[in-house]
Amino acid sequence: MTDPKRALITGITGQDGSYLTELLLEKGYEVHGIIRRTSTFNTDRLDHVYTDPHNDEARMFLHYGDLNDGTMLRRILEQVEPLEVYNLGAQSHVRVSFDSPEYTVDTVAMGALRLLEAIRDYQQRTGNEVRYYQAGSSEMYGKVQEIPQTETTPFYPRSPYACAKLYAHWQTVNYRESYDLFACNGILFNHESPRRGETFVTRKITRAVARIVAKQQKKLFMGNLDSKRDWGYAKDYVRAMWLMLQQDKPDDYVVATGETHSVEEFLELAFGRVNLNWRDYVEFDPRYLRPAEVDLLIGDPAKAKKQLQWEPSVTFQELVELMVDADLEAVGIVDPDKVVHPELATIRRTQLSQSMA
Ligand code: NDP
Ligand code: GDR
Questions:
Q1: Were both Cys, which of 52, 72, 84, 340 would link to 7 (CB 3.0–4.6 Å)?
Q2: pTM (2 d.p.)
Q3: Which ligand 1 atom sits closest to the C-alpha of 187?
């Protein structure tokens, strides 16, 4: 038997890290992830795929490390000897990056550089090719320069987070061109799921809807409802990451749905799912405003469609519904008619409607 392919993921405990782990395990990979030491468990999103490493069947392994600690990154790389490295680790909250710019930049920008340097040395010393994925963001487009945004649209970052991602983006290009590293930038637009962190706007809304129905919460305090985002489904987006590393040549790709919707539209649909009017519950709180806002994001995924044969499989409405349904289930409200997890039910509906079209 040949050795399984080995992948190393930073940010494995996050939304994308958990979906990417599932995908790679399904594809027969051995998956290694870097986790931060915390005083309480932080592996909730991974528990369902975790097997005790003492078990011969185990194919997922966790290593303590941090993007702010280059020595640890080098040590883990030497130990794991991965074929593919996915750099998903980040202080990924845009609003928080204004409060904590130095930490954000150290993790997001310098963290990527530390990892690239470690890979460059490892590859040079061993002769083993390592393929690198950098989790880039549509936030790098910032202030609108062009609609829709493509791989050639000029960047104009509007937060410490976006500036840091832009640095990581260009270093990735630079390492590809300078050291012939197989390094790809995914420029991913917002992608969501029931595993989305609770302080991002979509999950904040769907969680509040469920808690309001369950009488655990009365009001929802929000910031700017006018901004527009191109929202997709996280599970689709991790597939694009993997596809980028399977190509003959490294390149950069926009991953998006090509549709944009306002925060208000999201509220409308999410509260509408349980026959409530959002205007009865939502109140404004200026603390959720950002010093500089990104007003409009809409991506053109034509290149990913053509070269990666990648397509999003979940519509905006389905995304809102599957997130609301999952949060309803989390507070104990389960529609008895639904025999499978709502996340699966919605995807099956999508696949069915696609096959009927
Ligand atoms: P999450 O915020 O859910 O996850 C971030 C991950 O990074 C967590 O595992 C977190 O660990 C880890 N992390 C944070 N700080 C460090 C550090 N100093 N060292 C090592 N790991 C660290 O993000 P998502 O899963 O949503 O996003 C994945 C990546 O994609 C991020 O880089 C994000 O910036 C980027 N991105 C996300 C988009 C989206 O819409 N989701 C769109 C475009 C880009 P812990 O659990 O311990 O906090
Ligand atoms: P974003 O996502 O900044 O696009 O970054 P977020 O969900 O935080 O905000 C989207 C928009 O909603 C507005 N908004 C609020 N946002 C939050 N979090 N909380 C509120 O109460 C609220 N009210 C209104 C925001 O102002 C914003 O316009 C996400 C992250 O995942 C990044 O890591 C990633 O790179 C980008 O998506 C693409």
A1: 84
A2: 0.95
A3: 43
